[in-house]
Design brief:
Helices cover about 40% and strands about 20% of the residues. The chain is α+β, with helices and mostly antiparallel strands. It is elongated.
Amino acid sequence: MHSEVVASRSAEHRDSRESRNGTPHPDAVSLAIIEQLQEDGRRPYAAIGKAVGLSEAAVRQRVQKLLDQGVMQIVAVTDPLTVGFRRQAMVGINVEGDVESIADALTDMSEVEYVVMTAGSFDILAEIVCEDDDHLLDVINKRIRSLPGVRSTESFVYLKLKKQTYMWGTR
C-alpha cells in the first residue's frame, strides 16, 4: 500500500522530466499551461486552472517551476521602434575557433536581444536593438568585431517590423 501511495504522489507531482542532457521536458498539463499563457500572458491562474484541470495553487507552482527551469519567460513584448529604439538589426557573424565563446560574449551585451548558433552562411545570428545608427555602428564595429575570433559580420537593418508573435504552441 505504501509503495502505491508513493508512486501515485510522484506521478501527480511529475510535471516535467529531464532528458539525458538535462533539458526539462514538461508534461502535457504543463504544456497546456504554456499554451494558455502564450494566448494571454496575463491570464489569471484560476482561469488557467479551470482550462487545464488544476487548482489555482497548482498552476501557480507549475508556472514558477517552468520559469525557474528556464522553459519559459513571461514578458511584455514591444515593437522596439515604437518605444524609443530607432534601429534594429540582425547581424550574421562568422567565427574562427570556438563559436560558443563568441555566443556567450554576445549574450552579455545589453543591446543583443537574440543569439542563435547556426549552420549555413553564418555561425551566429544576433538581433540587436539600438537607439540610433551611431549606437548600432558602435555595437557592431567596436564591440562585436573586436571580439577575438570574430572573422566577419553582415548586418541586416530592419526597416519595419511586420510580424512578431510567440504563438507557435507546444508539441
